[in-house]
Specification:
The protein is an alpha/beta fold. Among the domains are: 7-33, no CATH class; 58-195, Rossmann fold (3-Layer(aba) Sandwich), CATH 3.40.50.300; 201-267; 308-360, no CATH class; 526-631, Alpha Horseshoe (Serine Threonine Protein Phosphatase 5, Tetratricopeptide repeat). The chain has 26 helices and 11 strands. The strands form 3 sheets. Strands 5-6-7-4-8 form a 5-stranded parallel sheet, sandwiched between helices. Strand 6, helix 5 and strand 7 form a beta-alpha-beta unit. Helix 20 runs antiparallel to helix 21 and helix 22 packs antiparallel against helix 23. The longest helix is centred in the last third of the chain and has 19 residues, at 439-457. It is elongated.
């Protein structure tokens, strides 16, 4: 024999000798000689961890049951999801409670070397007499055994890259593999992917209460709110409950800790807890891996300032000058830090967002300066994303979405951190809320935007004047003329002084003041101001400009309020005809003109024309604006 491969030796006489195979100086036990196919696994061989705290997951368990039900086929399932989502717990529970194969062997794949170590341990468990053999021999023995048998399950836990296990999968052509991984992509050649989401709220609450009350009755008031604040992430829920149980902290007090000291709360551990198993450490390794694409971490910090769901990818379009943007988004998706909804939007778990926008000087990914910069970029991206025509119903879906992200952004930091872009986003969304009849929210938004413009641009800047005018209009819509009229009067005087009599902002301000006078019943001041404004708009913008059309409609309304239907009706008829021609039948201002003309016919006692026109106006507004729009 080749001396390098081993040698045979015989004791006593040749006829009664016992053959021994020597491998690198180690004598193989007799168990190593028999056919590997004849080696049977000890009954019930399973090293999967116990799962005392497992809750819920009925759908995922059923999916795994179905996937592994067909005999005689190689099955490879990869359960993926965010760190702390409960992938390992699901796998361990399913292995122990649902799967009946033998053996059921668990390998934590921290590295390629960990696979070999796990396989060697499997070989020792299958044939304890071989425990003295070198690791390389044991790894090969385990691979041969797996290849020769098929009633087994191998769990590869926490796989970082598909490439780390392809050699093993290629070598073993039978059996079952269950993989857990944070990697959401890259499995199409290797496994069937199963995305694991957070717990249902009732499941998260069950987990929290079970941990909190283990061994003793405790106050559970506020537990549901804690689960909500933690986004129902199993790891976070478990750690929070354990902390409350050990320290005697009530769920309500824990909520207060989260609000006041999030960084310290995320890093908190129990007396016997693993400092590496904390909320703040849950994604640190992933972020370290992403650091080779710095823009990926930057994008995550930006997305942290928005609402967690339905973040339009188009918000990031201005960053497209960076050629690595698609790679950055792809890597965040691949590592389960964000979710691509495949409808043009992204999602981020709210706890990931909270962590990403919480400064921690000890964490290189959460430096205060980087977080502040991300907040300001998030505001700038939002401010630039609003469509220009707020009157077009086709833009309202976009406004609704951006309004939610503006609310999230401005709720995550005090007004003192607002920038011009923050104020612009606030003003856009306040305009939308005003148009939809949500006047309290609109006024709050205008007030915050105006305060920022005044502080950063001064009282006379055109953005300040515009915000002041919008706030006055919201007060008027809310019926608060005592605030609206003085604010309109101040704004008009300032706009005339700063921008001049013929500036469009000045003309708009004059029109709005006239409308407020009319709302107050002061037609002696309202009508002449409307007449002057219309003449100025016609001269400056032309007869067919949408703002001119609005001014003409407003003057007709003033004539009608004064009882001068002889001038009101012809002007309303002209306004309707012009708006239909310029803006189209379904434009919201055309619908308003049609309704106003019908009202004038009614005031004139001409119900034969008023009623059909009102019926059409109602039908058109329901169709275009929806049943619940104020109009």
């Amino acid at each position: 024999m080749d001396a390098n491969r081993g040698s045979l030796a015989a004791g006593r006489d040749i006829r009664n000798s016992v053959a021994l195979y020597v491998e690198n100086g180690t004598v193989l036990p007799q168990e190593a000689y028999g056919p590997i196919a004849d080696v049977r696994a000890p009954a019930g061989l399973c090293n999967a961890p116990a799962t005392k705290l497992f809750v819920g997951r009925a759908e995922a368990l059923t999916l795994l049951d179905t996937a592994f039900a067909t005999p005689g086929e190689v099955v490879v399932q990869a359960v993926h999801g965010l760190g702390g989502i409960g992938k390992s717990s699901l796998a361990a529970h399913w292995v122990r409670r649902h799967h009946t194969g033998n053996p059921r062997w668990w390998i934590t794949v921290d590295s390629r070397e960990a696979i070999d170590a796990g396989l060697a341990e499997l070989a020792r468990s299958l044939q304890p007499a071989l425990a003295v053999m070198p690791p390389a021999f044991l790894v090969e023995r385990a691979l041969q055994w797996l290849t020769a048998h098929d009633d087994w399950l191998l769990v590869l836990d926490n796989v970082e890259r598909p490439g780390d296990i392809t050699g093993l999968l290629d070598r073993v052509g039978t059996g079952r593999f269950l993989i857990t991984t944070r990697r959401a992509t890259g499995w199409h050649h290797t496994a069937t992917s199963v995305r694991l989401d957070v717990l249902a709220r009732n499941e998260a609450l069950d987990l929290f209460v079970r941990v909190l009350t283990d061994g003793a009755a405790r106050d559970t008031d506020g537990a549901a709110e804690v689960c909500s604040e933690l986004g129902d992430l199993p790891l976070a829920v478990e750690l929070a409950a354990a902390y409350c149980a050990e320290t005697g902290t009530s769920p309500r007090a824990y909520l207060d800790m989260l609000a006041r000291r999030p960084a310290a709360t995320f890093a908190a551990v129990t007396e016997d807890g693993d400092p590496d198993r904390t909320i703040s450490r849950a994604w640190r390794i992933t972020l370290d891996n992403l650091a080779t694409t710095p823009l990926a971490v930057d994008v995550l910090r930006i997305l942290a300032w928005y609402a967690p769901d339905h973040i339009p990818r188009t918000l990031l379009t201005p960053l497209a000058d960076a050629p690595e943007l698609p790679t950055a988004i792809g890597r965040l998706t691949a590592h389960s830090m964000i979710t691509d909804n495949h409808d043009g939007t992204l999602a981020v778990h709210r706890l990931v967002q909270t962590l990403a926008r919480t400064p921690d000087p000890a964490d290189e990914h959460r430096q205060p300066e980087a977080i502040d910069q991300a907040r300001d970029v998030a505001a700038a991206l939002l401010a630039g994303a609003f469509p220009s025509d707020i009157d077009d119903p086709g833009n309202w879906a976009t406004y609704r979405v951006l309004h939610l992200h503006t609310e999230a952004l401005t709720s995550h930091h005090p007004p003192g951190h607002d920038t011009i872009h923050t104020a612009l986003a606030l003003k856009h969304t306040a305009n939308y809320r005003h148009g939809q009849g949500a006047l309290t929210a609109a006024i709050e938004g205008f007030l915050r935007a105006l305060s920022t413009f005044e502080q950063l641009k001064g009282d006379d800047h055109h953005r300040t004047l515009d915000a002041r005018n919008s706030l006055a209009a919201a007060y008027e819509s809310a019926g608060d003329l005592g605030r609206a009229i003085p604010l309109f009067e101040r704004t008009l005087a300032d706009t005339e002084r700063v921008l001049g009599d013929d500036h469009t902002n000045t003309l708009t301000s004059r029109n709005n003041l006239a409308h407020a006078y009319k709302s107050a019943g002061n037609l002696e001041r309202s009508t002449p101001l409307y007449e002057r404004t219309l003449a100025d708009f016609e001269r400056v913008l032309g007869d067919d400009h949408p703002t001119t059309l609005a001014s003409r409609n407003n003057l007709a309304g003033a004539y009608r309020s004064a009882g001068d239907l002889g001038r009101a009706i012809p002007l309303l008829e002209r306004s309707l005809a012009d708006r239909k021609r310029v803006l189209g039948d379904d434009h919201p201002t055309t619908l308003a003109s049609r309704n106003n003309l019908a009202g004038a016919y009614r005031s004139a006692g001409d119900l034969g024309r008023a009623i059909p026109l009102l019926e059409r106006s109602l039908a058109d507004r329901k169709r275009v604006l929806g049943d619940d729009h104020p109009a």
